[in-house]
Write a structure and sequence with these properties.
alpha+beta, four-stranded antiparallel sheet, single chain, about 600 residues, about 20% strand, BirA Bifunctional Protein, domain 2
């Protein structure tokens, strides 16, 4: 059964059961608590809470979804970032009995799946929510043997809410037995076993509670049903495939990657799968106007595109290979979602520009990596350590590559493996542990700086603070270049809306001087320079050329922020990773702040 037929049969089945077919909502959600639509119920969220539905009390849909939470799982048999979710919904109408009975009817009668291949999970209860005995009884009454029904806890059989708060409740999950054979666990090989025997096909959610931002549960006045079945997983089952990537929703894309590559999918199945998934996801995000950036939805697009490019390199794909691969994805969906075809030119342009931009980043990073490997080969380990350099086979080197050049840690690892003298010293477990530790430390230092100033009031404000803080460094250096090195920071203040910067200078700045400063800051923003953070001793920081003008005593260990060799200052953060995140810098006022001290106020647009 082809995917188009599966979609139609599902929608038709529930339409005959009195459901209104509702088109997919956009991937870009209107819910302020989430970045993307991740489930079919999101467009109906308010109807679960009592608002009258214009579609009636029963709806059915095939929803476009995008999930970043599963990004690290992509590459196995069933996880995806972009997927289509088949779902039926009830707003205070039918509940558990009809939901379970109709699900069994659709799978066994319409899809012709043998009931013996279906296994079930239900919520076994915990200290906050009782066991879902009703679902268990309905399953048994439907003829499901006890030895194919298992109770699980919150992690597996309690769903929601979508976002930070909302409807949620216990679930009954339907799993398909792919192999019919238990793994080495024997009788313990049941649904949710990690061996790959089972794939979860359909999740039946019974919304009975409302969870607030403090994780407190209260009973809903109106019970509801929210089901979700991945079209790709159902297609895998009905088409007799062992993974979603072998279905008609992926096969044309995989074949195009094979055509472009010097390898077959059997050589590196994970790389093929990740490329196919990420390029498809990028096509749909770009079709809705998302462009690559370092913030929120744009960051998700940049992340999956750059991951696709990285894995493309492992497959020896030529430059500009994303275009024909993306065109295959567009062809698959052009009849179901005409917008992807209508936006094809814009989509392909976005992909090509990001590929070109990332190629330059990788080129710089590779040169630095190769230079350091050559240095390591010429000097012994003690000599390298004496100069304070990171050893190439350690995770700290990977972190430096990541922070300085935006060079992915997994790609650094692949490059290091090419050199025997490095490869023999590599311990991959230690490599990743050290890299993640350094990354976490960096994130915590930046976050602590923001929370001290802004009280931890949310990601939008904290990112805005990081942008403005970085802008003060650019402004400081621009003033020194335009006016002279006598310029020293005398103080600064940042609010979520603007920055204020005091500096030493004997006279009012002319219009021409102000324009030169503003233009220079914007030039550095446009160059999208890397902002790198390092921890070192205060003495070493001064030796490295870092600026430090305040009279208070610095700690023995300090944090230095360097902007690609152009600016270098001792500072506690927070900062962004690239100057391109800042947008447009504009000086709004220049005035006196005391004898020999001037003050500039500025904003980012």
């Amino acid at each position: 059964m082809k995917s188009k037929e599966i979609r139609k049969k599902f929608l038709d089945f529930f339409e005959k059961k009195g459901h209104k077919i509702v088109p997919s909502s956009p991937i870009l959600s209107t819910d302020p608590t989430v970045l993307f639509t991740t489930a079919g119920m999101q467009q109906f969220k308010k109807y679960f809470l009592g608002e009258k539905s214009p579609f009636g009390k029963r709806t059915v849909s095939c929803q476009k979804c995008f999930r970043t939470s599963d990004i690290d799982e992509v590459g196995n048999e069933s996880h995806l970032t972009f997927l289509e979710m088949l779902g039926n919904f009830s707003f205070g109408d039918y509940f558990k009995e009809e939901t379970i009975e109709w699900a069994l009817e659709f799978l066994t009668k319409v899809c012709k799946i043998p009931s013996s291949k279906l296994w079930f999970g239900y919520f076994k209860g915990d200290s906050d929510v009782p066991e879902d005995k009703e679902s268990l009884e309905i399953l048994q009454k439907s003829g499901i043997p006890k030895d194919r029904i298992y109770g699980f806890g919150r992690e597996d059989n309690f769903w929601g809410p979508t976002g930070e708060e909302g409807p949620c409740g216990p679930t009954s999950e339907i799993h398909y037995d792919l192999t019919g054979k238990p793994c080495s666990e024997g009788k313990k090989c049941i649904p949710n076993c990690d061996c790959g025997r089972f794939v979860e096909v359909w999740n039946l959610v019974f919304n009975e509670y409302y969870q607030d931002r403090d994780k407190k549960l209260t009973p809903l006045k109106q019970q509801g049903v929210d089901t979700g079945m991945g079209l790709e997983r159902l297609a895998m089952v009905l088409q007799g495939k062992s993974s979603v990537f072998e279905t008609d929703l992926f096969e044309p894309i995989i074949k195009e990657i094979e055509k472009q590559s010097s390898q077959s999918r059997a050589d590196n199945p994970k790389a093929f799968r990740i490329m196919a998934d990420h390029i498809k996801g990028a096509v749909f995000l770009a079709s809705e106007g998302v462009v690559p950036s370092n913030l929120e939805q744009g960051y998700a697009l940049r992340r999956i595109l750059r991951r696709a490019i990285r894995f493309g390199k492992l497959l020896n794909l030529p430059k500009n290979s994303l275009i024909p691969i993306a065109q295959k994805a567009i062809t698959i969906y052009q009849d179901i979602y005409p917008k992807v075809k209508a936006q094809e030119t814009d989509i392909l342009t976005i992909l090509q520009k990001e590929e070109e931009k990332f190629e330059k980043t990788l080129e710089k990073g590779l040169k630095f990596l190769q230079k350091n490997i050559e240095a390591f080969k010429q000097f012994n380990e003690a000599a390298v350590k004496e100069y304070g350099q990171e050893l190439p086979f350690k995770g700290g080197f990977a972190f430096y590559m990541y922070e300085t050049y935006g060079f992915p840690a997994d790609l650094t690892l692949e490059e290091l493996k090419k050199y025997p003298e490095i490869s023999k010293r590599l311990n991959e477990k230690e490599y990743w542990t050290h890299f993640k530790k350094r990354l976490k430390e960096h994130q915590e230092i930046s976050r602590a700086g923001v929370e001290k100033k802004f009280g931890g009031v949310g990601k939008e404000v904290t990112h805005e603070a990081a942008k403005l803080h970085t802008a003060t460094h650019l402004l400081h250096q621009a003033l020194r270049e335009v006016l002279g090195e006598h310029v020293k920071q005398m103080g600064s203040d940042i609010t979520p809306q603007r920055l204020r910067f005091d500096f030493s200078h004997p006279a009012k700045l002319t219009e021409d001087e102000l324009k030169k400063v503003e233009d220079l800051v914007n030039q550095k923003i446009e160059e999208d320079l890397v902002v790198k953070m390092e921890e070192m001793s205060y003495a070493r920081a001064l030796e490295s050329g870092a600026l430090a003008f305040f009279k208070e005593k610095y700690p023995e260990k300090v944090t230095v922020y360097a902007i690609n060799g152009w600016s270098r200052e001792i500072c506690a953060g927070p900062h962004v990773n690239h100057t391109g995140e800042l947008g447009q810098f504009e000086i709004t006022k220049e005035e006196s702040s005391g004898a020999g001290t001037r003050r500039i106020r500025a904003v980012l647009k």
